[in-house]
Design goal:
Blueprint lengths: L2 E3 L2 E3 L6 E2 L2 E2 L14 H5 L6 E6 L3 H13 L6 E6 L7 E2 L15 H7 L11 E4 L4 E4 L2 H10 L12 H16 L1 H7 L3 H21 L13 H17 L14 H11 L10 H9 L33
Parallel strand pairs: 5-6
Antiparallel strand pairs: 1-2, 3-4, 5-8, 6-7, 8-9
Helix pairs in contact: 2-4, 2-8, 5-7, 5-8, 6-7, 8-9
Length: 314
């Protein structure tokens, strides 16, 4: 996988696997951003950038929030992707000034902390003037974008505790559990992870029996998080990560929920199934040493069935 150790890229280093189990590392960078940061810093185009990968669900959550918040004309996206020779590489044609300085995402980290040790993950919120990472936490980036916009209220005060509790449940039971399954080197760990994934999906399917989104008729950050995982489920998690018991399309309510968000203005343009498959299959040498990219499953993402109005399932 590779990571930075004392500011130097070490291609074979990996601290995420412990006794055959995948464990997501905690960031070594400060991640929080002040609630009024965007207003205080000024909405000046060309200073702040979202560095994101189209294959990454954590990036995707931040990108969707940026679009819904209507801030994409102020905070531009620099895409990262391709073969991860030194982690994520920057893709050509991006808006980032002085792009020639950096070719890899890990260079943003060492620009911020020269002796940084840890993985160089995306998304990151980059200050091109001060040349430092302001946050590499998708949760904090999403919260900041929401708070800096007059168009969204994705974490309303009255529901904040409930939303945070459900976010933790979705992370542990689904968004991270699919990685536990896909990267597991032990049968017992794989079985436990898959059981957790489908128990969580069953619970979320039941939750949507009488509502459009997880908390009713209005979209929240929890819905965006869930969408970013579900939109990838049949493409890579049910295949490459071996979560094979069911597909998303086997869950009528979750399938409708995912399409409902997919069809919101500007959101389908954030979904790149080719890049998703490439990002998972080609960059996972342990489980796919020959780099064979699985074909895209036949899924009718254009289907409008059930989206025009709410119709509860019996």
């Amino acid at each position: 996988m590779g990571m930075l150790i004392d500011g130097k890229w070490e291609p074979t280093a990996d601290q995420s696997m412990v006794s055959g189990k995948y464990r997501r590392e905690q960031s070594a960078l400060p991640t929080s951003i002040e609630a009024n940061f965007l207003n205080e810093a000024g909405n000046t185009k060309g200073r702040f950038f979202l560095i994101a990968s189209a294959s990454c669900p954590w990036s995707h959550g931040a990108v969707v929030t940026l679009i819904l918040a209507g801030l994409e004309d102020i905070i531009e996206i620099q895409w990262a992707g391709g073969p991860r020779r030194e982690g994520y590489g920057l893709l050509p044609g991006g808006p980032l000034p002085n792009r020639s300085d950096f070719q890899h995402v890990h260079q943003f980290y060492t620009s911020t902390v020269p002796d940084y040790t840890g993985r160089s993950t995306v998304p990151i919120f980059w200050d091109a003037v001060d040349r430092k990472v302001l946050s590499n936490s998708s949760a904090d980036i999403m919260a900041m974008l929401d708070q800096g916009s007059s168009k969204t209220d994705l974490r309303p005060t009255a529901l904040r505790n409930e939303i945070d509790h459900l976010l933790e449940y979705i992370f542990d039971g689904l968004s991270n559990a699919v990685y536990r399954a896909g990267k597991s080197q032990r049968q017992d760990e794989y079985d436990d992870a898959v059981d957790t994934v489908f128990s969580t999906l069953d619970t979320l399917e039941d939750r949507l029996a009488d509502r459009l989104f997880l908390f009713g008729k209005d979209l929240t950050i929890a819905d965006i998080r869930l969408f970013a995982t579900l939109v990838r489920f049949d493409t890579v998690y049910a295949t490459h990560f071996r979560c094979t018991r069911k597909r998303l399309v086997d869950y009528p309510r979750l399938w409708r929920f995912t399409r409902r968000i997919f069809h919101k203005p500007g959101i389908r343009q954030t979904v790149d199934f080719d890049e998703i498959r490439y990002g998972y299959y080609v960059n996972d040498g342990d489980h796919n040493p020959n780099g064979i990219v699985g074909q895209q499953p036949e899924i009718d993402w254009d289907s409008q069935e059930g989206l025009s109005e709410y119709q509860p399932f019996e």
